[in-house]
From TrEMBL:
GO molecular-function term, one example from the UniProt record: glutamate racemase activity
Classification via PROSITE patterns: ASP_GLU_RACEMASE_1 (PS00923)
Name used for this protein in its record: Glutamate racemase
Entry similarity comment: Belongs to the aspartate/glutamate racemases family.
Active site, per annotation: C80 (proton donor/acceptor), C191 (proton donor/acceptor)
Organism expressing this protein natively: Tistlia consotensis USBA 355
Gene: murI
């Protein structure tokens, strides 16, 4: 029973965190999952630092309260690069549980490149953070790093999970600065939405040998911070199906379109944060409430 008895929350501005969930549940398949998609806050990059930090701390409190009705949170994964580069310290200062952030996999890209030319594909808010400057200085100083703020990929990924295939021309426009970078052979995906478009990205730039997703590293770090809890044993019941709850902020309209994707990740229902009644994603009523 890997992770049985644990309750782990994921927080993202939308459905990008599902790419992280995939790696997490491979490592801890028996953990209960509480996922919060902050649709009402999307896009995070458009908010001031103070506004976003305050919002994230408030959402963490509400997630902890939501979980406490059944079992206390054992960990929170902030499955968003923009949020992580800004608010991790504030979140950790308040939380009574481990908080794991998302770091652009620049170090891995620098280790994997053979040409010395790597890309950082992220939102505009992430690529300009001083934190990213430090990552590049520490781990990729020998490389030429092409930073691309491609916020347009986020709505394309969100729409793809709702059944709308990405427009190849729209993807090509977002990737244009990488397409003209001579020698580019590795790209660090600095937004959790982007691995959801992995096949589309690879098709758009077939010369890139490595598209690097941070999710496996996040899952490993989660296991490390939970190691004492796992070693001590948990209260899980053998054979019990782990519970997965999908919560969201903002209006319910559009949730129905996510039903097939959510079901594929083990979510049987979705509901607004703070509401006790569930909205089955496959129900027509879900889109009208």
């Amino acid at each position: 029973m890997e992770g049985a008895g644990l309750t782990i929350a994921l927080l993202d501005s939308g459905v990008g965190g599902l790419s992280v969930l995939r790696a997490m549940t491979a490592a801890l398949p028996d953990a209960d999952i509480l996922y919060l998609a902050d649709f009402a806050g999307l896009p995070y990059g458009a908010k001031s630092d103070a506004e976003l930090a305050g919002r994230l701390v408030g959402l963490q409190r509400r997630l902890a309260a939501e979980a406490a009705s059944e079992a206390p949170l054992d960990a929170l994964v902030v499955a968003c690069n923009t949020a992580s580069t800004l608010a991790l310290e504030a979140l950790r200062a308040e939380a009574g549980f481990p908080v794991v952030g998302t770091v652009p996999p620049i170090k891995t890209a620098a280790e994997m490149t053979r040409s010395g030319v790597i890309g950082l594909l992220a939102t505009a808010a992430t690529v300009r953070r001083p934190y990213v400057d430090r990552l590049i200085a520490e781990h990729a100083a020998r490389c030429r790093v092409v930073r691309v703020g491609a916020a347009g990929l986020v709505p394309l990924a969100e729409a793809a999970l709702r059944g709308s295939p990405p427009d190849p021309e729209a993807v090509a426009r977002e990737l244009a600065p990488l397409a003209v970078a001579e020698g580019l052979d590795a790209v660090a995906l600095g937004c959790t939405h982007y691995p959801l478009l992995a096949g589309v990205l690879a098709a758009a730039l077939p010369g890139v040998a490595h598209w690097i997703d941070a999710a496996p590293a996040i899952a490993r770090q989660l296991c490390r911070v939970l190691a004492p809890r796992l070693a001590a044993g948990t209260d899980g019941v053998e054979g019990e199906t782990p519970r997965r709850r999908f919560l969201f902020t903002g209006p319910a309209a559009g949730i129905e379109g996510l039903a097939p994707a959510l079901a594929g990740y083990g979510f049987a229902e979705a509901r607004p944060l703070g509401r006790a009644d569930s909205l089955p994603p496959s129900s027509p009523a879900a889109a009208s409430r």
